[in-house]
Amino acid sequence: MVQSIYSFIKGIRKVALLYVYILPFVLCHAASAQERSYTAYYSFTLPAVFLSKEDTIYVRKLLQLSDSLRYLNRDSALSVLTIAIDTSKRLGYYGGVAEAKMKYGQVVYLGGDYIEGKEHIAEAYYYCLNAGQDKKKMLALWYNNMSGPYSYLGNYDSAAALLLKGLQIVRQINDTSLMIRSYINLGAVLGNSGNYASSLYYLHKAEELAHYPGYSLYNAHLYYNLAVSHGGANDTLIQQLYGHKALKASREFRDLRMEILSLHTLGSNALYLRQFDEAIKYFEQAKELSGDRMPYYSFLAVRGMSQVYSGMNNLAKAKSTGIEALRLAAQTDLVEKTVSMQNYLVADILHRLKEDSAAYYYLNEYVQLNEKVNNIERNKTIDYLEVKNKVLEKDRVIALKELEVVRQNMYIRTRNTWVGIAALGMVMVLTVLFGFYYRTRKKMQLLEKEDEIRRLKAVMTGEEKERSRIARELHDGIGSLVSAAGINLNTLGDDNEELVDQASFKKTEDLIAEISAEVRKTAHNLMPEILLQHDLPEAVKLFCSYLQKEKRPAFEVQVYGDFQGLTKDFQLAVYRIIQELVQNIIKHSKASNAIVQLHADQNLLSVTVEDNGEGYDPAVLTGQGMGLGNIDTRVKVLNGRISVDTGVGKGTSVYIEFDL
Amino acid sequence: MSIRIAIADDHALITEGLEHMLHYSGNIEVVATYADGKELLGGLPSIDIDVLLLDISMPGQQGDELARIIARDFPGIKIIALTNLDNIYYIKSMLQQGVSGYILKNVKRSVLIGAIEHIYNGGEFLDPLVKERLKEEMEVVKKQAAYGSVLTRREKDVLKLIAENNTSKEIAEKLHLSKRTIDHHRESILSKMEVKNVSALVKKAIELGLITV
């Protein structure tokens, strides 16, 4: 019985040894932790205008984080991706949802749940379609991702079909990076199906593109798959070459998983070439890198070592490493051919060590495990077929569900837009109201100011009226009486010539003349009749001529322009200002010369009153005293502007202008 | 044959005083007296006079205005302004309207009678004080014609900046004033310097030593 078993074992021994060479091809997925250019790529293809850059960057960071976690801490990677999905949904960042969902699916199916993983990836499809301007790229990614679970389930035809469909889109958008990835995946899938020639065709296509600078990102995957594919095609030397390249690239990009896999392919290659020392070296390195974190890879490494020792006929070491390998396999809970075959390998070693009972135990383990594996494989196929139907139904349900989600999102977005519009409207209404309020207040202030001006004007008009009345009384009453007295006195003198020679007669005559002049001057000061009858410049000239007679500063009156069109009220008001300025010069300046200049053009009426007197410190006399306060008010009432240029010893120049 | 005169003055006392004054001259007859321009213009067509003694400041139409109308409508009447206004403005204004005499009210009887007779005979008469005022005025005009008008300080500042080739806008910025104000000054400067453009202005300003090169 035992013999017959051994003979059976011997028959399949070659198969078992061969099995170790063919490591699984590795698909290179949409995201690997080393995709440094990824963020850069997306930063200028953000799909929706509503997205704030910070938020999408946050999502991208989450996606990157999940990449670095996926092989080390699956659960953390999944929870990070869940956050990324929720955040992206909230933002309406469908590209982000799609990507996160695809990654979620990858992490799930790489953990062995192919069907569930596939479902997650399938869900991403509808988000890919809504990814705005990224739609095509996302769809290409989706086809690549979708091929993964099919490939792992051994459905290589479907996987290849999906990849070819993806490649079609990639060619449309002319995305070299994505094209390289598609070729690599296609090569891997075809390699897995044993079609090495086709596999190498696509892998070499990828290699051509990867030569261009900036596309070395997937070199580790590319070279590794090339190595495995060449190994499968029995080109062992070329396998070795690409194995080294893969090892170099994976180290360059700090891709631990690919480094381990590269070491495995090199180890297997060395074992095949019976370069046992080399092989041991590679497997030991692989074991060291895998450590406790990746027990499956540790198992593969130690298994490789036991195969090498077995080949070297170092049966003691072959036994210890072989059993160690099984211990590591137990940790992974994996039930697969590699594990069952390892039991057979150990049985073979023990048999060679003549430890037959122990060998029998492992042989038994092998048989049982093999049965299990075969069952699982069978079940898997049945499951797959069954699930396939379910999935199709589920896909439809999911599609409807996702469609609903998209609709709802659209609805929410629309609602948000309306809320936004409403808020904007409110803001606008408030702005308008505030503007209105502000204007009204300003208007009120203006009205108040106008009121004040009107009040001042009324006061001034009242003053002017009163002055006018007094002036007329002076002129008509006292003035005419004095004139009459003068005429009568003259007549008296003419009639009585002896009176004329008397001093008192002459004195009386002079007095009457003086009274007459004084009355005229006072009347003029009170109300410049000449202004009312003629214009401002004449009134000013007259006023200044009265002053000149009294040995005051010599006033030079200069007039430019036409004053005829101006209202009498306005001219009178300006006259009063000039009067006051002139009085100031007489009272305070001690000037010898002064200029009064009037100038009217189409736009402005200006008054310049300037003297060469003492001047004053403008800091000391700020509008008070000197009558400037009063002048300021008068100027303001007339909407004019006043500026005073003075300084101690500098004289004073007052410039006033009014808009006409 | 006596000289027929009329008096227009709003003060009865004055009119009376004048009548009394002229009464002593057997040669002059006061035909009518009027208290304002309206009465005067209404009455003149119905009387025949040689000389009118016309006050300047009266209610309603003023003396200079009345003088113009009368000179136009009654060219045969000689007008004497009889007023206590000795201001050059009124003097010039009345003389422009073609009055033959300008006499102040504190005039002596003999002088007044002499003046009326002189004017009646085709002469002109100006009160000595009025002559003096006219002389003063002539001197002012002469002086201004000789030296030009004095620039104000602000105008000097603006002139300097104009000479430095600044635009009105630039000057406005430098002096913290509006462009309108600067244009306004520019205009008065051009008027004072009696030039039409900036290059002539600068040339003249240099000639007059107002700016240095």
Q: What keywords describe this structure?
A:
heterodimer; A: 660 residues; mainly alpha; 5-stranded mixed beta sheet; 24 helices; 6% strand; rod-shaped; B: 213 residues; alpha/beta; 6-stranded parallel beta sheet; 10 helices; elongated
Explained architecture:
The complex is a heterodimer of chains A (660) and B (213). With 660 residues, chain A is mostly helical. Chain A has a five-stranded mixed sheet, covered by helices on one side. In chain A, strand 4 and strand 5 form a beta hairpin. The radius of gyration of chain A is 55 Å and the shape is rod-shaped. A six-stranded parallel sheet of chain B has the order 2-1-3-4-5-6, with helices on both faces. In chain B, strand 3, helix 3 and strand 4 form a beta-alpha-beta unit. In chain B, 41% of the residues are buried. At the A-B interface, helix 18, helix 20, helix 21, helix 22 and strand 1 of A face helix 1, helix 4 and helix 9 of B.
Q: How many beta-strand segments of chain A?
A: 5
Percentage of residues assigned to helices of chain B: 40-55%
Secondary-structure element order of chain B, N to C: EHEHEHEHEHEHHHHH
Given the structure, what is the number of helices of chain A? 24
Let me know the average pLDDT of chain A. Answer: 80
Number of β-strand runs of chain B: 6
Q: Oligomeric status of the shown chains? A: heterodimer
Strand order of the largest sheet of chain B: 2-1-3-4-5-6
SS-based structural class of chain B? alpha/beta
Structural class of chain A: mainly alpha
- The Cα radius of gyration of chain B reads 25 Å
**How large is the radius of gyration of chain A?**
55 Å
User: Could you give the distance between the termini of chain A?
Assistant: 130 Å
Shape of chain A: rod-shaped
How does the major sheet of chain A shape up? 5 strands, mixed
Strand/helix succession of chain A: HHHHHHHHHHHHHHHHHHHHHHEHEEHEE
Mean pLDDT of chain B: 87
In one word, what is the shape of chain B? elongated
* Parts with pLDDT < 50 across at least 5 consecutive residues of chain B: none
User: Fraction of residues of chain A in helices?
Assistant: over 70%
